[in-house]
């Protein structure tokens, strides 16, 4: 492509470099960065308050045009808790798990896959759509289960069943790394969930991996595990109506009960009233017990 000062210059390159150095950016975070870039490139002072959303969007458009041949794209989504729009540089085509394998070991990738399986299978049921996992629950997935080991022995190894696993201390470090890399977020109550960046980059993989319902499932009325907002089509993993003016479903117009939550508030220990109200639905009491119990760790497994 020919170089054009108006369409692509050193200012655009610095802007793209800022995205490459961070997992996500918001408009408020971009304003001082873009102001500094314009000040240096145009040799006149530009203040953060001078930066408009239109300026930001023009730089994103120019960057996306330039990086599209490399299957990269700057995308955006709203954070589900505070409704701030988050922007991230993501790979638009390749398997994101394979991407992670370039910077993490096979054992770490297997651990990550087990954590994702727990988020979207174990802790995502018609009764409790939590789609998040506590620190204790995650660390206990440091090694493949007996079922996973049998699958490996039978030649049906999956990403989550591969390898011998991690020590618990290594699993804890991996969780911290996933937060630092922008894949996970950790709430004040200690729940890990996918970040806005992860939901954008893993979107296709999540739907393909966990929404594998067949005709028999559909006949029995089983819903897909990965659910999308009927209005904006984004994946929903947290309280959908928290920032909405209307409490009615935009698709079927059914009013929200005020009792049914998505995300960590769906866990039995954080929504006891809703849990008691639905005690006769879905899973049996033993499944609820599995979701809330937090067995103590074995101390010697922390040894290096």
Tell me what the structure shows.
With 304 residues, this protein is mainly α. Helices cover 40% and strands 8% of the residues. It has helices at 10-20, 27-42, 53-67, 96-100, 106-122, 135-139, 146-153, 168-180, 196-201, 203-210, 215-219, 272-277, 285-292, and strands spanning 72-78, 85-91, 133-134, 184-186, 191-194. Strands 3-5-4 form a three-stranded antiparallel β-sheet. α1 (10-20) packs antiparallel against α2. The protein is globular and about 65 Å long. The termini are far apart. The relative contact order is 0.11.
Helices and strands in order, then pairings?
Blueprint: H1 10-20, H2 27-42, H3 53-67, E1 72-78, E2 85-91, H4 96-100, H5 106-122, E3 133-134, H6 135-139, H7 146-153, H8 168-180, E4 184-186, E5 191-194, H9 196-201, H10 203-210, H11 215-219, H12 272-277, H13 285-292
Antiparallel strand pairs: 1-2, 3-5, 4-5
Helix pairs in contact: 1-2, 1-3
Main attributes?
disordered C terminus; two-stranded antiparallel sheet; about 40% helix; mainly alpha; 5 strands; about 300 residues
CA-based gyration radius: 22 Å
Order of helices and strands: HHHEEHHEHHHEEHHHHH
Q: Give the strand content.
A: 5-15%
Number of distinct helices: 13
């Amino acid at each position: 492509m020919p170089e054009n000062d108006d369409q692509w210059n050193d200012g655009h390159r610095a802007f793209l470099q800022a995205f490459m150095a961070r997992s996500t950016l918001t408009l408020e975070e971009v304003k001082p960065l873009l102001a500094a870039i314009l000040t240096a490139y145009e040799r006149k002072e530009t203040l953060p308050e001078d930066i408009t959303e239109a300026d930001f969007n023009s730089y994103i458009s120019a960057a996306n045009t330039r990086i599209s041949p490399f299957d990269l794209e700057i995308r955006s989504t709203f954070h589900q808790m505070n409704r701030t729009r988050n922007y991230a540089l993501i790979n638009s085509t390749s398997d994101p798990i394979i991407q992670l394998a370039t910077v993490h070991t096979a054992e770490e990738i297997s651990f990550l896959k087990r954590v994702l399986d727990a988020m979207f299978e174990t802790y995502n049921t018609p009764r409790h759509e939590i789609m998040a996992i506590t620190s204790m629950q995650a660390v206990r997935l440091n090694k493949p289960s007996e079922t996973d080991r049998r699958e490996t022995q039978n030649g049906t190894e999956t990403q989550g069943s591969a390898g011998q696993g991690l020590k618990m201390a290594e699993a804890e470090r991996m969780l911290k790394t996933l937060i630092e890399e922008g894949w996970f977020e950790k709430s004040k109550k200690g729940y890990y969930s996918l970040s806005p960046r992860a939901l954008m980059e893993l979107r296709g993989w999540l739907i393909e991996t966990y929404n594998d319902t067949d005709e028999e499932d559909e006949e029995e009325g089983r819903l897909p595990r990965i659910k999308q907002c009927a209005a904006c089509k984004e994946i929903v993993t947290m309280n959908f109506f928290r920032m909405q003016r209307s409490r009615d479903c935009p698709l079927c117009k059914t009013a929200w009960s005020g009792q049914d939550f998505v995300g960590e508030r769906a866990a039995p220990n954080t929504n006891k009233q809703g849990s008691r109200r639905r005690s006769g639905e879905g899973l049996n009491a033993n499944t609820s017990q599995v979701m809330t119990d937090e067995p103590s760790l074995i101390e010697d497994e922390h040894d290096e």
